[in-house]
Amino acid sequence: MGLMGGWLAPAMVAVVVSYAITTLLLSNLREFALDLPNHRSMHETPVPRTGGWALVAGCLAALAVSPISPPLALSAGFVLLLAVSAIDDLRHVPARIRFSVHLLAVALVLWALPQALAWWWYPLLLVSGVWMINLYNFMDGMDGLAGSMTVIGFASLGLIAMLRGHGDLAGVCALLVAGALVFLRFNWPSASIFLGDAGSTVLGLAAVGVSLYGWQSGAFGLLVPVLVFAPFWLDATLTLLRRMLVGKRWWEAHREHLYQRSALRIGVKQTLYWELGFMLSMSILAVSLTKLGLA
């Protein structure tokens, strides 16, 4: 059995379950949890924001038949975040509650790490992790964008992990890629379903977890996920700083992200192609630096 032996069946489970639930949601529950257009959105017709439910369900089903058993604290962090985010997809959850859950979810991931860190790492990683959860949500505002980042980002981390001999970490990445590919089938412009908070926040936490476990296991350095997910954190961070500097209410919803401004000028598909080029370029850079022993 190869390096990733035991992961083919779970990946197939992720695909089948994600596809089946997405089809069910679109055929029988299409009017459920609709994202209604407004002056801040990029879509013009109501679209269900339940795609993340199917993606996450597929990945959870796949993990259940996978060769690994995630630590209890790690599982608790994801389940807690998923529950609150799913409720937020149905009815508004106050920001203070969402933020508290984000903090707790990242704290549980840090607690579940196999090795202890120097004390100063914990506040740094806690803030970075909460920001990753939120920026993944912020960047999920255009058809195909978050799904593409998930496919390319986790495929890159999985490839590097596999090249370094970390088959189980590569397998987890493969499950996320499999679920995201199914989601992209329905989210590619013009999208018939959106990721929703349940999907975007969980994927953000998954990026945190895979990055930290990959770092601690020696699969790659922290520079690798920083480069791979640069298309997301650069846009979100620069937009936040710009809004703060000009005195805008930076915590409010808007459509001033670089990708949104680009989509309003040249269209969604053209912007998505540019974003795909950026994602692929950063991933190739990360893989190349790893091969050279520089990351």
From TrEMBL:
Keyword flag Chloroplast: no
Any one GO MF term held by the record is:
metal ion binding
At which positions is Mg(2+) bound? 137, 197
Q: Which domain of life is it from?
A: Bacteria
Q: Where are the transmembrane segments?
A: 6-26, 72-90, 97-113, 145-163, 169-186, 219-241, 272-294
Q: What is its main location?
A: membrane
Q: Identify the GO cellular component terms for this protein.
A: plasma membrane
User: InterPro entries from the entry?
Assistant: Glycosyl_transferase_4 (IPR000715)
Which prosthetic group or cofactor does it need? Mg(2+)
Keywords per UniProt:
Cell membrane, Magnesium, Membrane, Metal-binding, Transferase, Transmembrane, Transmembrane helix
Q: Which GO terms describe its biological process?
A: cell wall macromolecule biosynthetic process; cell wall organization; lipopolysaccharide biosynthetic process
Q: What is this protein called?
A: UDP-N-acetylmuramyl pentapeptide phosphotransferase/UDP-N-acetylglucosamine-1-phosphate transferase
- Provenance organism: Microbulbifer marinus
Source organism lineage? Answer: Bacteria, Pseudomonadati, Pseudomonadota, Gammaproteobacteria, Cellvibrionales
